[in-house]
C-alpha cells in the first residue's frame, strides 16, 4: 500500500516573510528620522525614501524582480508626498490604512461571490489556477480560511491603524506597522492553514487534489467548472 504524501502547510506554499519585513523598514525609518530631526516631516520622508532606495537596490542585486521593487518604492514615495502635502506626520501611514480597508472589503466580497481570494492566491502559486473550484470541499475550506484573513489581518490592522492615525500617534503607528507586518502575517497564515485543513475531510489529500485527480466529467457543459 502506497503511503500518502504529507500535506503541504500553507506557510510552505505562501512564504512571503521577506517582503513583509522589507515593507516595515521604510516606515520605521520615517519615524526615526522624524524624531531625530525634531519632528520634521521632510527629514522623516527623506529617511524613508533613502532606506527604500537602498533596500530596493539590494533586492535587485540579489535577483528580485525589478517591478516589485519599483512598486514598493512608489508606495513609500506616495506616502511621503501625502504627509508633506498635509503637514501631518501620521498621514505617512494613510495609504497603509486605506489599503487594509480595501483589502478587508475585497476579501469579504470574494467569499460572498464564492471566489475566496485565499484559494485564488494559492491556486496561482501552486500552478492550479482556478481548478480548485471544482472541488466543493476545497471551495468550502478556502472560504472559511479566507475569513481569517478578513478579520485577523485586515480588520485588526484597520482598527489599530485607524485609532492611532485618528489620535495622531506617529511613534505608535511606526511600532504598529512593524508588529502588524510579518508577525501578524505569520499568525494569520498559521491560523488560516489550521482552519483550512480542519475544514477538509480527513481523507482529503490536500490542496493539489484537483490538479492530480482532475476528471473532465467534473466540468459543467461548456467547460465551466461546477461549483
UniProtKB/TrEMBL annotation:
Bilayer-spanning residue ranges: 43-61, 68-85, 105-126, 147-167, 179-197
Keyword match Transmembrane: yes
Pfam families: DUF3159 (PF11361)
The organism's place on the tree of life at top rank: Bacteria
Annotated region (Disordered), positions in chain: 208-227
Keywords: Membrane, Transmembrane, Transmembrane helix
Protein name: DUF3159 domain-containing protein
Provenance organism: Amycolatopsis keratiniphila subsp. keratiniphila
Amino acid at each position: 500500500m502506497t503511503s500518502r504524501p504529507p500535506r503541504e502547510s500553507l506557510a510552505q506554499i505562501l512564504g512571503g516573510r521577506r517582503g513583509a519585513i522589507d515593507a516595515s523598514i521604510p516606515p520605521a525609518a520615517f519615524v526615526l528620522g522624524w524624531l531625530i530631526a525634531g519632528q520634521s516631516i521632510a527629514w522623516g520622508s527623506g529617511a524613508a525614501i533613502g532606506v527604500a532606495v537602498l533596500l530596493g537596490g539590494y533586492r535587485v542585486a540579489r535577483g528580485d524582480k525589478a517591478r516589485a521593487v519599483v512598486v514598493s518604492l512608489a508606495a513609500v514615495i506616495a506616502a511621503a508626498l501625502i504627509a508633506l502635502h498635509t503637514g501631518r506626520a501620521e498621514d505617512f501611514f494613510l495609504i497603509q490604512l486605506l489599503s487594509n480597508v480595501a483589502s478587508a472589503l475585497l476579501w469579504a466580497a470574494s467569499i460572498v461571490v464564492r471566489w475566496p481570494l485565499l484559494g485564488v492566491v494559492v491556486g496561482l502559486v501552486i500552478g492550479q489556477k482556478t481548478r480548485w473550484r471544482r472541488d466543493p470541499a476545497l471551495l468550502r475550506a478556502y472560504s472559511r480560511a479566507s475569513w481569517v484573513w478578513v478579520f485577523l489581518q485586515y480588520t485588526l490592522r484597520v482598527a489599530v491603524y485607524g485609532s492611532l492615525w485618528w489620535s495622531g500617534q506617529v511613534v505608535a503607528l511606526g511600532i504598529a506597522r512593524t508588529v502588524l507586518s510579518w508577525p501578524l502575517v505569520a499568525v494569520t497564515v498559521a491560523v488560516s492553514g489550521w482552519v483550512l485543513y480542519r475544514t477538509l475531510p480527513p481523507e482529503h489529500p490536500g490542496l493539489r487534489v484537483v490538479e492530480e485527480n482532475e476528471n473532465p466529467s467534473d466540468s459543467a457543459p461548456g467547460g465551466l467548472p461546477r461549483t
